[in-house]
Write a structure and sequence with these properties.
One of its GO terms (molecular function) is DNA binding. The chain is an alpha+beta fold. It is built from two helices and four strands; from the N terminus they run ββββαα. Helices cover 25% and strands 31% of the residues. The model has no long low-confidence stretch (mean pLDDT 91).
Amino acid sequence: MGKTLNRIHPVSDPEATYFLQVSWEQDLGTGFGITLSDGQCAWTGTVSEAEISREAADMEMDRQKYVEELKKALIAAEESAGKYNFAIS
């Protein structure tokens, strides 16, 4: 099982700090759990393998490429700093 925790500053509220935790069993492509917290409240959810495939198809993107982009955006925050923006709504 893998798990990461990253600090993010959403473009929708750049002064705010959120913490994004992503956890997975095998790899992101098989689905993952996600928790977002502002330090006072936390929101959790899961993304299934089927939802990942559906989103990749909707974006007309190769599924493996889509999973690689998910990894960059959600897990590799240090390496991808400044390349991905988050908006909280």
